[in-house]
Specification:
mainly beta; six-stranded antiparallel sheet
């Protein structure tokens, strides 16, 4: 089993000394994962997790707007069609792959991540936030590959 991980710290103070994060746990997205051994049953089996206690949604809606203090995080707004929606702080993904016959491979991915599908609304009113905001929201895909 191979562990992996990373982190970063978001700046606590923005322009003019305003503070938008009360705790360091709101400022550090923590990511970690494992390459799980499958003893040659699969070529790759990777499980990854992310935790972010940030109280602001992962959303770039109106990212360039200015107010009296300059650029500031926007307050949470529910996703379109889900009044009062809240988001979950945990994200995860599971990826598996198996190659066979030198030219073929099959892979699958199941995930609850920062999916932002392209949406096109009149007047350029795109939803720029995470699409998967509740614990029960997740997606999957399977792929068959042939190399020439």
């Amino acid at each position: 089993m191979t562990p992996l991980g990373t982190d970063s710290i978001i700046n606590k103070r923005l322009s003019k000394g305003f503070s938008y994060y009360d705790s360091i746990l709101q400022r550090i997205p923590i990511m970690f994962g494992f390459n799980i051994p499958t003893f040659k049953i699969l070529d790759v089996c990777a499980l990854e997790f992310e935790y972010s206690g940030n109280r602001f949604p992962n959303n770039y809606h109106r990212a360039g707007d200015m107010d009296k203090q300059g650029l500031v995080p926007l307050p949470p707004r529910p996703a379109t069609g889900t009044p009062g929606a809240t988001w979950d702080s945990w994200k995860w993904s599971l990826y598996v792959k198996k190659a066979f016959a030198k030219r073929f491979s099959v892979s699958a991915l199941a995930s609850r991540d920062h999916m932002k599908p392209a949406t096109h609304h009149p007047g350029n009113r795109q939803d720029r936030g995470d699409f998967l905001i509740k614990k029960a929201h997740w997606w999957w895909m399977a792929r068959i590959r042939v190399d020439f």
